[in-house]
């Protein structure tokens, strides 16, 4: 979005009455006429040039040699695509991991299609189950020239629900050529009335004209009588247990906004799945950047009080706008981590190609912008990312010019420290910072000689921590020496890549709802070392890094490496936090001497209600463990095991619930979002 503040008084022409009287209107008219004539001439030249190029291009395409070479060109393009895919995998190890991931996904797909449907006995048991709240769900479906096969499959999937207190509200904007739509619906309406013997469960309205998705859905809402509203597309399919699972969380968790996992499938067979989307729990930063909730939304009707369901000015992304508005109002948004929605992919659908509805991109930006303004944000920018046109990067305005204190613990390893400090000084575009090097038991002469060099820079100071190495204690000590409003914990074996790395982190750390902010870190071979932390991931079942070892150019699971998002924790190798929050939580827990102190700190902030954010737009190299070595053998391994045990005991209940930002269908043994089998 364009920043309105860039227009200053010097950009605006001012006119006095006297100046207006002296204006030569006739000469101004003539000048405008000449400008228009010149522009028209340029347009004519461009059109002629385009015609010439089109003619030449058509001659090339009609050339027999060009036609004969078509198979060779297709082969060449295929090789280039595979080369790029292999490049994104990184090393041979990465390629093998990708192959393994695809094999796991192929096997997993077998368990999420019709194979997951309940048996007759199971379905009967669910139909007979009585919940304390047997809420009625009004399922809204806007119809428009729906192919008969799709229409019947959609209605049948509702009829097959194992929870039966529903009504299907259909508003039909089809044209005269598609009159069969009304006939098919009437057929099912009669059939349901006979079967249920309890009044119509299908409500139908033929519209005088098509009002688009927003208008037609709003017409559906006018017919609805349920306590909860469900939004369903006219060519998609529901899992038989969808409503049952939703009513279950309404009763057990007092949910008032519910969504589930979903998959796209080739038209005609839900077992031919294309992309399965296993989603995180409610995460506002994810939702602002990407409408990951999408289908199948069901919500308490009272959330609509005083507001519209769909707003036509956001057609194309009316659901993103609606989700942002209603989740803002909801008391408890609940994700059902089960694949319950089948999104049909065909040439005209957004599931098949976003270009089918190009206006959706601008509508989505508008919906997010409207949401951000409601939350008091100003002068932000929303741009598409390399992942997808409707996956966004949001640049928030930085308020004021707060000072950042960069804390770097160090023991010898001058080349590493020098590379780190030099990259900060040479590359950072944010200037109001200080660097505090926390010296801890160095022994090499060159280390102290380098310290003397550093002290010549007004931005840098060296302080001494004389105790034995304790990462938590060292940084707590450094924080007490800091003058900044924000503390940036940074390992000495890091190197800045993106020049605006501080700004990219600070824009989130300044928010009142955010605790810590972490960056995207790479090894020297450009594979990912850190892109957010998942609780319970890894052999110790404490915490692990997602997307670990994937190539820098990888988009990540469902584009997650391309947008800022909420995570449970980030690594202390590069962590930004307001100094007030650091002090409020008592800093790092010094009982965690080397490991898991950063994760523990993040969880303390999350416990206080703050969000933790990972941003991929602050990038650094992290030559991990070069300073102190790895933790996989000898005393270090023993120490890590002890600290892991302490962490598991301290956060037992949190770990038992699972990471809210990591779908429980994913394996905790792999960091690449591979599914459990």
TrEMBL record:
<feature type="domain" description="Glycosyltransferase 2-like">
    <location>
        <begin position="138"/>
        <end position="304"/>
    </location>
</feature>
<protein>
    <submittedName>
        <fullName>Glycosyltransferase family 2 protein</fullName>
    </submittedName>
</protein>
<dbReference type="GO" id="GO:0016757">
    <property type="term" value="F:glycosyltransferase activity"/>
</dbReference>
<dbReference type="InterPro" id="IPR001173">
    <property type="entry name" value="Glyco_trans_2-like"/>
</dbReference>
<feature type="region of interest" description="Disordered">
    <location>
        <begin position="1"/>
        <end position="27"/>
    </location>
</feature>
<dbReference type="InterPro" id="IPR029044">
    <property type="entry name" value="Nucleotide-diphossugar_trans"/>
</dbReference>
<dbReference type="Pfam" id="PF00535">
    <property type="entry name" value="Glycos_transf_2"/>
</dbReference>
<feature type="domain" description="Glycosyltransferase 2-like">
    <location>
        <begin position="405"/>
        <end position="527"/>
    </location>
</feature>
């Amino acid at each position: 979005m364009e920043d309105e503040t860039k227009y200053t008084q010097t950009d605006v022409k001012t006119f006095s009455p006297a100046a207006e009287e002296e204006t030569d209107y006739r000469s101004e008219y003539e000048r405008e006429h000449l400008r228009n004539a010149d522009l028209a001439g340029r347009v004519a030249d461009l059109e002629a040039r385009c015609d010439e190029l089109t003619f030449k291009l058509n001659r090339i395409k009609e050339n027999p040699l060009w036609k004969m070479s078509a198979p060779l060109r297709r082969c060449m393009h295929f090789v280039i695509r595979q080369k790029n895919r292999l490049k994104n995998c990184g090393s041979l190890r990465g390629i093998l991991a990708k192959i393994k991931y695809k094999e796991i996904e192929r096997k997993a797909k077998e368990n999420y299609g019709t194979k997951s449907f309940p048996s007759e006995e199971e379905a009967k048991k669910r139909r007979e189950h009585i919940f304390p709240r047997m809420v009625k769900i009004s399922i809204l479906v806007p119809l428009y020239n729906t192919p008969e096969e799709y229409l019947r499959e959609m209605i049948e999937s509702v009829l097959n629900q194992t929870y039966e207190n529903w009504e299907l509200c259909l508003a039909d904007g089809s044209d005269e050529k598609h009159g069969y739509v009304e006939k098919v619906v009437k057929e099912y309406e009669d059939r349901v009335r006979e079967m249920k013997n309890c009044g119509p469960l299908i409500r139908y309205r033929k519209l005088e004209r098509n009002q688009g998705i927003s208008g037609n859905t709003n017409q559906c809402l006018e017919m609805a009588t349920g306590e909860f509203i469900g939004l369903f597309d006219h060519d998609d399919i529901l899992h038989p247990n969808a409503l049952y699972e939703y009513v279950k969380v309404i009763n057990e968790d007092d949910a008032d906004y519910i969504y589930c996992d979903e998959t796209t499938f080739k038209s005609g067979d839900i077992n031919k799945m294309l992309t399965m989307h296993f989603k995180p729990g409610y995460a506002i930063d994810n939702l602002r950047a990407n409408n990951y909730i999408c289908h199948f939304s069901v919500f308490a009707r009272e959330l609509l009080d005083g507001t519209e369901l769909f707003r036509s000015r956001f057609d194309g992304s009316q659901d993103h706008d609606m989700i942002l508005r209603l989740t803002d109002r909801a008391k408890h948004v609940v994700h059902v981590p089960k694949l319950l929605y089948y999104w049909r992919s065909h040439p005209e659908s957004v599931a098949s190609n976003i270009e089918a509805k190009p206006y959706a991109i601008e509508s989505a930006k508008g919906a997010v912008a409207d949401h951000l303004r409601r939350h008091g944000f100003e002068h932000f920018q929303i741009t598409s990312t390399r992942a997808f046109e409707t996956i966004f990067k949001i640049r928030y305005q930085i308020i004021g010019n707060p000072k950042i204190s960069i804390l770097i613990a160090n023991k010898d390893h001058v080349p590493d420290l020098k590379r780190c400090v030099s990259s900060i000084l040479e590359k950072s575009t944010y200037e109001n910072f200080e660097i505090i090097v926390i010296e801890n038991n160095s022994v090499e002469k060159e280390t102290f000689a380098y310290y003397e060099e550093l002290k010549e820079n007004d931005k840098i100071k060296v302080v001494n921590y004389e105790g034995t190495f304790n990462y938590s204690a060292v940084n707590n000590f450094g924080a007490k020496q800091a003058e900044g409003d924000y503390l940036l914990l940074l390992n000495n074996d890091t190197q800045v890549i993106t020049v605006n790395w501080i700004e990219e982190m600070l824009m989130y750390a300044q928010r009142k709802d955010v605790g810590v902010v972490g960056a995207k870190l790479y090894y020297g071979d450009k594979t990912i070392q850190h892109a957010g932390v998942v609780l319970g991931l890894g052999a110790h079942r404490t915490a692990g890094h997602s997307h670990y070892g994937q190539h820098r150019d990888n988009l990540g699971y469902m584009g997650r490496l391309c947008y800022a998002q909420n995570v449970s924790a980030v690594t202390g190798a590069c962590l930004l936090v307001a100094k007030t929050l650091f002090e409020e939580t008592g800093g790092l827990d010094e009982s965690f001497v080397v490991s898991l102190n950063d994760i523990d700190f993040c969880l303390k902030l999350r416990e206080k209600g703050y969000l933790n954010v990972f941003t991929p737009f602050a990038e650094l190299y992290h030559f991990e463990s070069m300073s102190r070595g790895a933790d996989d053998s000898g005393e270090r391994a023993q120490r890590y095991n002890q600290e892991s045990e302490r962490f598991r005991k301290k956060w037992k209940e949190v770990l038992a619930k699972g990471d809210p930002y990591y779908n429980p269908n994913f394996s905790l043994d792999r960091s690449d979002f591979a599914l459990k089998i």
